[in-house]
Amino acid sequence: MYSFTNDYSEMCHPLILENISKCLNNQYGGYSSDSIFKALNQKIIKLLDNPESQIYLFSGGTQTNLVTIKSVLQPYQGVISADTGHISTHETGAIEACGHKILTIPSSDGKIYAQEVAKLCQSHFEDPNFEHTVQPGMVYISNPTEVGTIYKKSELEALIKVCHQYHIPLFLDGARLATALTSKENDIDFKDLAKLTDMFYIGGTKCGALFGECLVINSPKYQKNFRYIMKQKGALMAKGFVMATQFDTLFTDGLYFKIGQHENDLANYFSAQLQSHAVKMFQPQATNQIFPILTNSKINDLKTNFDFQIWEKISADTSAIRICISFMTTKSVVDQLIAAIIKE
Amino acid sequence: MYSFTNDYSEMCHPLILENISKCLNNQYGGYSSDSIFKALNQKIIKLLDNPESQIYLFSGGTQTNLVTIKSVLQPYQGVISADTGHISTHETGAIEACGHKILTIPSSDGKIYAQEVAKLCQSHFEDPNFEHTVQPGMVYISNPTEVGTIYKKSELEALIKVCHQYHIPLFLDGARLATALTSKENDIDFKDLAKLTDMFYIGGTKCGALFGECLVINSPKYQKNFRYIMKQKGALMAKGFVMATQFDTLFTDGLYFKIGQHENDLANYFSAQLQSHAVKMFQPQATNQIFPILTNSKINDLKTNFDFQIWEKISADTSAIRICISFMTTKSVVDQLIAAIIKE
Amino acid sequence: MYSFTNDYSEMCHPLILENISKCLNNQYGGYSSDSIFKALNQKIIKLLDNPESQIYLFSGGTQTNLVTIKSVLQPYQGVISADTGHISTHETGAIEACGHKILTIPSSDGKIYAQEVAKLCQSHFEDPNFEHTVQPGMVYISNPTEVGTIYKKSELEALIKVCHQYHIPLFLDGARLATALTSKENDIDFKDLAKLTDMFYIGGTKCGALFGECLVINSPKYQKNFRYIMKQKGALMAKGFVMATQFDTLFTDGLYFKIGQHENDLANYFSAQLQSHAVKMFQPQATNQIFPILTNSKINDLKTNFDFQIWEKISADTSAIRICISFMTTKSVVDQLIAAIIKE
Amino acid sequence: MYSFTNDYSEMCHPLILENISKCLNNQYGGYSSDSIFKALNQKIIKLLDNPESQIYLFSGGTQTNLVTIKSVLQPYQGVISADTGHISTHETGAIEACGHKILTIPSSDGKIYAQEVAKLCQSHFEDPNFEHTVQPGMVYISNPTEVGTIYKKSELEALIKVCHQYHIPLFLDGARLATALTSKENDIDFKDLAKLTDMFYIGGTKCGALFGECLVINSPKYQKNFRYIMKQKGALMAKGFVMATQFDTLFTDGLYFKIGQHENDLANYFSAQLQSHAVKMFQPQATNQIFPILTNSKINDLKTNFDFQIWEKISADTSAIRICISFMTTKSVVDQLIAAIIKE
After folding, report:
1. Quick check: D94 and C62 CB within 8 A?
2. pTM exceeding the 0.90 threshold for the entire prediction
């Protein structure tokens, strides 16, 4: 039985464990006052070519989202998101539990667009009873999105322009950022993220780390007093150096991007093979998530040897499934899955 | 420079890393649906001899506290705590940020006592305007306490009796539980905690783990829907198996208690040596935290080779410092510190 | 200049002031411990023929909604509402500020239906990752709705049946209840509300009171500790007897229903007259809100002598306006408005 | 039976009702867009001689406190208050329910002093782990205090100086402001409050209004977006003009201060008479609350004809009671109470 359910089913990339092992006899400062953290911060700053960027380490994505959003919004503000956004659908109301409404924009491709954000903001501020409605205070997007699509550079440029016109920041959830930036369709450099977002996070949990997400806030305006909120929400880890070591490993010799490339290569290959056998896709594949549409009986057969998520019912007889390629997935096991799918 | 500042300055006990290494090629279910977690749960149940106990894994102590307390309290209820309690002093208002008042009881030894809790509860329910004040809904204690003292079995028995009389649960914060249960003064078995508390947590971060705390809820009443709140607060980790592996290691061959014993042995030794040289203590030493009172000039001298926390100013010339023994601390470095302290 | 903007533009029905005047030299208990309140409670119980009903007095609608919803929901639960619901659109995120998501159902007529609620609940509980999504915990409806439509008895019967199947209560916002229950289309008795809802409120602010809403909770299950939450949210008024006197007046000799009938009669008349002159309506008129579609130039003309709300742009040249009839509106002023509208 | 329990046991001052009666046929704008409100605002500005002051009307004190405090604090900030402060003791955790800790200062006279606030602020900002503790973000005081004492002008001058040194505002709860400013011990003019506070409220509920409190924010810095929070917390009343009319009445011909003077005169008289008969006081009397210490048997006797609150047990045989003089209390009934107390 091999699981394609997720990219977080294995411990971590071996190099990460190796690097932690080397440090067993060292002592480090608590709460990210350690030297590894400081060096990592410098490394990220250099890659982004933005000396004002500052990193913050978190243990998981929902936590990163809720702390970041809470730190920005005033009590009467909400965060704009696609209705498919992770914060809107799969975080058990974490944002609302922080007191804020999510102002959703209907989306079919997982993305939201500049003109939609502009319309929503304009409509609020033009309302004579604006104090009776929630003020837009931030924009949240995911790249790749929850359905595996990615943003184009021009789309982010348009988005942040609108955001800044309304004096609100743009936050990019990069839970699977490695796969977005190494997608065949991508035209965004890591460096661009310093300019295309006000804050974004570099996902570790779904990209080969034991755990951990690295938030980057690009402007000092949003950094002030941020750590208070981390602590208040239980997100300021005593042993921050455990996460710092992991991200330092991921950002040494481009390991983070190699992991993304590995996953995308296998996903591209898988996708191409299936399409050459006339398997239809629920969403065009851009990253490590592939959504083939199969008959229910085929899906049942596959379940004997493979595990994966059933994404959505398509017709009485067919469903879309989600195949997720991980940093540990090999071409060999992908070939086995292909064979099983195309077998009569 | 050796740091006695904390017991969370080093990565982790070597056995933990060894065990994670062995599992690099395995796949596990997400969000604590994995087999290691299930086995760990059985192990804890067996040790507690309480089949109804259920474990939940968290990435840190503040998070464990806030999720647990939030899960129990109704909106109009508060949690009773010593005014020295970690939730009251050092979690940036995490409990209040969840909407709840902390009903503090003044404490000089870090503990609260049954009769104090009874008085507070009685005074609320007897108030004809009780709806104008916060209803007591839970009791929070730490063992060891924030000042290194520990509870006696009889004290916990009296506490939980009062709690249950008022239909509220008793929650024990065991951030350093290993050192409490192996203290020279302790008369509580691990097993007793199933009966002496409604829920407690087994601290990992401060007892040799890379990170992680293991909450045990002893009664199904408080388990229902608990995971919703974990998820909502960003505490439900995708790779729960990373924590499960660590706690499985700590609860194999009694490693957890060996770590506590090691720390206490060195602390007892250090404390005895100092007292034999007439050094006074701010608090009697029971666990791995020792609070010697030294002259400020001596403290300055020590800072050349050692790092530690200055706890409290005692007089114009003297202060109490905190020496914290970790799972990696050796007798040799403790001897160096003793020598430096008693040197004229 | 006469304003048809709202039904809350005048002080109050003269009888209310008269009754307050009579009591100037009396003394009353604070926080609704007074005798007028107790008598009012008995009166409502009798009208509902439900001895278990209990009333609670509030100063406004948003406050009533947020306290009631907060009192019912667990932290991980949300409230189901039409996307047009007042709590969703015009209360500045009051529910989210209490920590809860609003689970919206798209609506064109302001109503939600039993099968929609059933589908939403079913979909949550069948989700294998249900703990990652917000649990439905309550249903909120308005009668009349925000667009002036009203519920049929059979619709409420179906709704509460589904609610109870999922063990969640049905809450009816009756900000303009007087007009719903006296609508030409209504088939619900006041008495029915004890069985058709778990809690509902009798709107005073928009039905002739100086201020105030009277919440009725029909089941003891939801009454317990309710006043704590009222106090915590600043809703427990010291001089509860001021509101009690007002509602006592409104429920003496059926004044409340007479007010509703007066408003509906004028609205029916206005609506009929306009339709006989071929004026189209944005929504069919059922209560005291009428939404005629007029040309923009006609709207501008009307603004010389009348005030009203422009509801929605319909085409380049036309818009729907909202005419709201109040307890003080006379047939004479309605005739003036009709004349102005139908004038060439 | 005559009740001295409270100053909110009667409807309202007759002039208030008279003025509302005169306006029954008028129409007013909703949500404090009305003309009475605007005129009232100008009147208050003129009395304060501070053109930047802006008023906001609320239905009750707890609501005023929670909205004002919520509007100022960042999520990681708390409000400093005497431990006897109303927000700390008798509002069911309203501030904590908004997410904020109350940083209490122990007080025996109901007041807090500049040096105490300075010490608390300094101690926070000097803490190397300051992000682990709640940041002071505001100071809350009551005048008169909950035990009937009042602030001296010099004390407020010192307080606001410290507040501004730490860039936090000073908020004065004036639930019974009329009696503070007309106390025999008072040296503060109404006008001074524009300079001695950043915001304060003029209590109506306890000073002769049907209901209502008038918050004054003296600086535009704290006014921005304030109404959003009022609406979100259910405090923005549709018929704001009902409150505006009341406060307009109270601030016509100095009625507000006449009410305070009336209450204080009777309280001074009562207090003097009792002391001339050697009755001891629990707190020195300054305003309309008097706390005589009586034997329990005397208290029981009095209960036959009078109602009042038993404040605190003093010894086995004696207790302090609270006598509260209202705007409707007459010298005649006070004389009856005196006679009953001094009767052998």
Report:
1. no
2. yes
